[in-house]
Design brief:
Number of domains: 1
Shape: globular
Strand content: 15-25%
Number of strands: 3
Order of helices and strands: EEEHHH
Helix content: 25-40%
Largest sheet: 3 strands, antiparallel
Radius of gyration: 15 Å
Length: 112
């Protein structure tokens, strides 16, 4: 979701209760940061939800700034991605998808 920030992604989950959206960023080492999650009530994401996610993303960037430049160890993810940042992103996104799938027990679809 470039409208929120660089590297921000979304997942939409649908079940009997409705459609839910999770806005997260998984490009930083050590964690996947969930910026906002909510039940969707309108087709386009509401401005207030996007603004809240943007605000939380800016706060996150300020808090993580001192951590930039940390050294990452090599892993299988490093072997399949061009940069260590992309490898860490792939690893975290994979872990998030697995965890969400276990929680939801419903098929997940990623927006294009």
């Amino acid at each position: 979701m470039p409208t929120v920030g660089q590297g921000v992604r979304e997942i939409r989950i649908q079940d009997e209760a409705g459609i839910f959206q999770v806005i997260f960023v998984a490009k930083f080492p050590k964690a996947v940061y969930v910026l906002h999650c909510f039940q969707k009530k309108t087709e386009p994401t509401a401005k207030k939800d996007l603004d809240l996610a943007k605000s939380r993303y800016r706060v996150l960037l300020k808090e993580l700034k001192p951590e930039q430049g940390t050294i990452r160890q090599c892993s299988v993810w490093d072997a399949i991605e061009d940069t260590s940042e992309q490898a860490e992103n792939m690893k975290l996104r994979s872990a998030l998808m697995i965890a969400l799938r276990k929680l939801c027990k419903t098929p997940l679809t990623l927006p294009r």
